Amino acid sequence: QVQLVESGGGLVQAGGSLRLSCAASGRTFSVYAMGWFRQAPGKEREFLAAITRSGGSTYYADSVKGRFTISGDNAKNTVYLQMNSLKPEDTAVYYCTAGNSWPGVNDYWGQGTQVTVSS
């Protein structure tokens, strides 16, 4: 099993930035990649970005390409999501994931962290 704990969510004004963190523990050596999804009220979960544990490959959804950046620190078993130029439509619960599928990494899920972007 892999446990994931997100942090860094909060309230930000449109145009601002936030960095989400996800700390992984447990059998982290067993996963190929980590990623981020989000779910806005009344909408389905949406894939955002993924990164291989080696950091050699990344993948982004078109909706966030150029604004969001995924990165990882293997020494800390942590993955980050840097979010810039935030828009009110980015308001959602953001989930960290880990697993062996690519790019839609979704075997393990964190509990989520709320991001609210005010206009």
| Secondary-structure content class | mainly beta
C-alpha Rg, in Å? 13 Å
Order of H and E elements = EEEEEEEEEEE
Number of strands: 11
Tell me, briefly, the overall form. globular
Instruction: Look at the structure and give the mean pLDDT.
Output: 95
Strand content: over 45%
C-alpha end-to-end distance: 40 Å
Count of helix runs: 0
User: Major sheet: size, sense and barrel closure?
Assistant: 7 strands, mixed
Helix content: under 10%
Uncertain runs:
none
Question: What does this entry look like structurally?
Answer:
- By secondary structure, this protein is mainly beta.
- 0% of the residues lie in helices and 54% in strands.
- The chain has strands at 2-7, 10-13, 18-26, 33-39, 46-52, 58-60, 68-73, 78-83, 92-99, 108-109, 113-118.
- Strands 2, 4, 5, 6, 9, 10 and 11 form a seven-stranded mixed β-sheet that branches. The protein has a four-stranded antiparallel β-sheet with strand order 1-3-8-7, with no helix packed on it.
- β5 and β6 (58-60) form a beta hairpin.
- It is globular and about 40 Å long.
- The mean pLDDT is 95.
Descriptors for this entry?
single chain; 119 residues; 0% helix; 4-stranded antiparallel β-sheet
Chain-wise SSE layout:
Elements: E1 2-7, E2 10-13, E3 18-26, E4 33-39, E5 46-52, E6 58-60, E7 68-73, E8 78-83, E9 92-99, E10 108-109, E11 113-118
Parallel strand pairs: 2-11
Antiparallel strand pairs: 1-3, 3-8, 4-5, 4-9, 5-6, 7-8, 9-10, 9-11
